[in-house]
Structure formats: C-alpha cells, structure tokens
Design brief:
about 525 residues; alpha/beta; Purple Acid Phosphatase, chain A, domain 2; about 30% helix
Amino acid sequence: MNLISEPSIRVKIQKMKERVRWLHPQIVARGIDQTSMVIDDGKENSPEFSFMVIGDTGTKSHYGHHPQRKVAELMLPHKDECRFVLHTGDVIYVVGSREYYRTNFIEPYREFLEGGNYAERIAYNRMVFNLPFLPVPGNHDYYDVPLMYRLFTGSTLRLRRMLRYKDIEIGWHGSNQGDAYARAFLDYLAAISSPEELQRHLDQHYTAKVDAGRCLRYQPGEFTRVPNRYYTFRYGGIDFFALDSNTFNTPSPLPETQEGEISRHALQKRRQEIDQEEMQILAACDQLNPNKPAEAERLDDLNAKLDQINEIKIDIEKQLAANATAMIDFEQLDWLRNRLVESWNTSEVRGRIIYFHHPPYVTEATKWDQAQTLAVRHRLRWVLEQVAKTLGSLVKDHPIVDLIFNGHAHCLEHLCTVDTGYADSHINCIVSGGSGHFPRRQRPEGNELMETFTDIPGSPTRKVADSLLFVGRNGHDAHKHLPYSCVRIDVQGGRPLKFIVKPLVAERIGEQWYNHQPEPFMI
C-alpha cells in the first residue's frame, strides 16, 4: 500500500470546477470571465515594478531550525518594494492537509497577512494578504492519505517509521483532492449557500473589466482570492499566465511493442529496487537519535533520500498506469493557446510570463529524467507551436513568452533554451523551488540538457537548453551546504522587455546560517 495517493486528472478538473461553480448561470448571465482577474493596488499600470517568486515551501521546523521562515525573513526587506509574490506550488507538504496551514504557511509568512501579529487566530480559509500571494497548485497540494492509513495510523511498520523518523507532516485529512488549497486561495463559490448571497458576492467582487468581460477584483488587504486553478492577469503591460500543470503531466503510454514491454519490465524492476532501498534507509533511521545534533544531521540526509525515492516511485507508477485513454487537460491548454494569441494581438502588452509547478527544463538530480517532465515539456511545446503558426511573422525572431517560472525541483536555477527546432526556443526559465523543503543536488551530467526527439525518425540527440545558474545542496558531512532560496525580479520599462534577476539565499552550513545574494543578472 502506498503512503500517498493522488486523484486522477478527471477528478482534479471536476472537483475544482465544482468549487468555483464553473459556468454557473448567474456567472454566465453577468458575462464574467472566471479565468481573469485584476490586481487593484493603484499601481498596476506602472511599467517598472518588482515582484518575488517562491516555491516548494510548506514545511515545519526541522530539528530546531525553520528554513522556510529564513526565506520569509529574506523577503521582508523587499516587501515594500515588490507588488506581489508568485508561488510556484507545493504550498503544504506532504499531502496538502488543512491542519498544517497554520504552522507551515500562516506563521512563516505572517507579516504578509492581515492580522499576522496574531497568526494563531487566522483560519487557513480566511487569509487576507497585504501583499498579494498568487499561487498555482503543486502535486503535493493534491495528494491524499489512503483511507486505510487514516483508520489504522501506526499499525503498519513503514508508516510508523515514516511518521517517527521522517519528521514529515502527513496529516489526518490529506488535501481532500485539492480542497484545502482551493479553500485557502480560490474564490470558493461552492461555500455560498443561497442564490441571493451568490448574487451579492458576484456584484461585490467581480467588478473589474477585461477584454473578455467582467472579472474578479483582487484587492490587497481586503479581498485576496484568485478566480480559478489557472488564471491570467495583466500588470505593468505584462500578461501573466498561471497554470495548473498537474492536469497535463501524464506520461505518454508505453508502446505496445517488444521495446515497450522491455521498458515496462525495467520500470517494475526499478520499483522493486527502490522499495528495498527505502527499507534499508528506514532501518538506518531506527539507529539514529534526532535529539543528538550529529545524528539529526544524518537523519536530515536520509529524509532527503526518502523524499526523492517517493517522487521516483510516483513517477514510475504514472508511467506504468499510462494508457492511450489517459486524460489530458486540453481545455486548459486550448485556453492558454487562445489567450497567448490574444495577448500578442494586443498592442499595449509588451511581454508575457507563464508560471506553473512542473519544470519543462531543469538539471536538479531527480527531475530531468522524469516522465512527467517530458510530458509537460511536450504539451507546452505543442501550445507554443500552435501559437507560432497562428501568429506567423508577428513573432518572427521573438520567443512566444519572455519568461517561465516553475517549482517542483528543490533548487534555484536559471536556464535558457537554445534553438530546439520548435517554438520553445530561446526562452529564459527560472526554477524557484528551493524555498523550504529539502534542497536537492544538481545532476552529475552537468549544465547541458540533451533531448532525443523520438517523434522524428532517425533524429539525433541534441542540446535543447543550458543551465546558467544552479543553487542547491552541495558538499558532504561537515562541509554540507543547504541553500534555501527565492528570487526577486525587477521589471524594466520600455521594449524589448528586460528583467533584473536578484537571487536571495539563506544557507545552512552545520549549525550556522548565512544570508547572501549571488550576483544579480539581466535577462
């Protein structure tokens, strides 16, 4: 039995639609676009502005230190100069359970919340931000605990060990198929009981106007909800697109050939191997005392390995379960394609930024070879190809989007695609997933990302991206460095669009913490 379960894509989509009352008659009658919003802070038209990006937070204190709080403290000196914070997902570990929002989100980011001086009084589904926090869901925000474990917690050796030694926040409830995330951040219209109350709510909060019609008005300090699991907003002449990559990351099915059968057997063998490795690590944890500093450090390393093993198992299971009828969220992908085309045909828009959880390009040790990474890359590439064909010469020699932000990989990384042969060429990508949960190492293969294009017979493997900056776990034992990070982006005025990127890093070496800022760079 698995410790973590994940709803199907079909369930994710349907549940989220129910929570925002997707296309409810009152919404349709008012001409409301449920995927758009306006940030009403009185500064949204300024072409020069700054914002911050964090991701993969959601953890509590570990053995007396709280990395996520250290990152929040890095952010505080920039708070008054930044207009909003993008969150690239995995708000709460391990299974997005509602009971951990107070310790794992509200308390670490209390200065960014109204009433934050009394964080213990803030309900997770009543948060109001004084600086906008604009999230997308991560995979952990959708995870659940199987019912059997909830009923018999402690009766299984593996679970007892995981709960005791991994020091992880399993939670009794799980995310309830993403419900906790939705109640925390989305305009949860399903909680409104009467037609009259819904009418008042829509007339009060959906008063902003965009080309697509009326939309939600996000008011810092007053009403801070996003309209949907994926959405768009315009700020300073830039169109931002927030996506839910959890519904288009399904791996392609293994081919019904001898080669596919060989791959299936290899995956099953790998799954058995990592199961054995997991049990060996848990046995090693049995011998360590978290109250002794040296042994606590060893436990921290083993926890990180267990965390990686869990991700590998989930990715293998997704590959083994993939079939030709597996659902892909084409509704969202078509929305992105259409909105990008509209954006390019709008003269006042000077740039486009996309952010979502799973990175299409990354050199963190566990992610590049994941089938989910390939799935996300192929589906994003498919959208950008369609946009390029529609726009023709309008986008000649220009990337379709100016910048992509992701999380999922526990590091801070800047990559740039080269000429891939497709419309995802020459795009800057920043992975900001190192804001609280176990930092990861860079893969030993180095900074160049190579891809084999299996859809083109006889096509050789070729380089598709370069990693230009990587901030992640490095060193060993007494020389082990654990950097936790976020990033500040300063948007320059004028055209072509330019950004100054300022990495912010709090690094733990032994028992000591050090704050430092790698050299800012322009893209």
